Amino acid sequence: FAGYISQVLKNYTDHACDGEYVSLRCPHRTTISIQSSFYGRIVPSHQLCPSRYPHSYATLIKEDVACSVGTSLQKMLDECQDRRSCQFLVNSRLFGMDPCPGTGKYLLVWYKCRPNEYKSKVACEDDKLRLSCKKSMVIAIYSAIFGRTQGGSLECPYQNLGMPMIECQSANALQLMIKRCHGRRSCSIYASTYEFGDPCYPGIQKHLNVIYTC
């Protein structure tokens, strides 16, 4: 159980140079959840993915290190999201137009492994959040957010008090939920600034959103 949970909670990072295969894989009963992705080059080739061809010093000077495409996240979602594993060859044709011809590029991807069966619970600010599992099962926390997200929360509609629509989240929400609930059959916690601190401007309404499995 402990080994499975540590794999599920872990943030995975993978990379592949042009012409190499990228391969993402998650443990049994979990699927890939893409967090972020980058394709292009922002560091020189002697630091990451050296060129396969001999370059003169003059050519190296011209290497583009401010090169990226905006389609890499969507492509990773299309190829890998909600699958247990995925593998494909990395090259510029995969992402549409080549942003910097002549410069060797690479793909960086950050992902987590999400349980196939998971539950989501929301508590509005100052309300109590209760989590529970059936007999002989215990709680495994997958993610926790306390604050205000860009899309808001349907369960906790915000009153428009002239506050700007900004995103603000507590940095310790996940650690606190793990400490309070992880490995227990049931637990409860108040979605309050007393518990989580206040990551937002004073007066901004917040909520607690927890994703877990039993």
What does the model show?
This protein is of the alpha+beta class and 214 residues long. It has 2 domains: 1-115, Jelly Rolls, CATH 2.60.120.740; 119-213, Sandwich (Jelly Rolls). Helix content is 16%, strand content 35%. It is built from 5 helices and 12 strands. Strands 1-6-3-4 form a 4-stranded antiparallel sheet. Strands 7-12-9-10 form a 4-stranded antiparallel sheet. The protein has a two-stranded antiparallel sheet with strand order 2-5. The longest helix has 9 residues, at 72-80. The radius of gyration is 21 Å and the shape is globular. The termini are close together. The mean pLDDT is 83.
Short description:
The protein is an alpha+beta fold and 214 residues long. The protein folds into 2 domains: 1-115, Jelly Rolls (Sandwich); 119-213, Rhamnose-binding lectin domain (RBL) (Jelly Rolls, Sandwich). Helices cover 16% and strands 35% of the residues.
What's the structural blueprint in terms of helices and strands?
Blueprint: H1 2-9, E1 12-17, E2 21-25, E3 30-41, H2 57-61, E4 67-68, H3 72-80, E5 85-89, E6 106-115, E7 119-124, E8 128-132, E9 140-148, E10 168-169, H4 173-181, E11 186-190, H5 193-196, E12 207-213
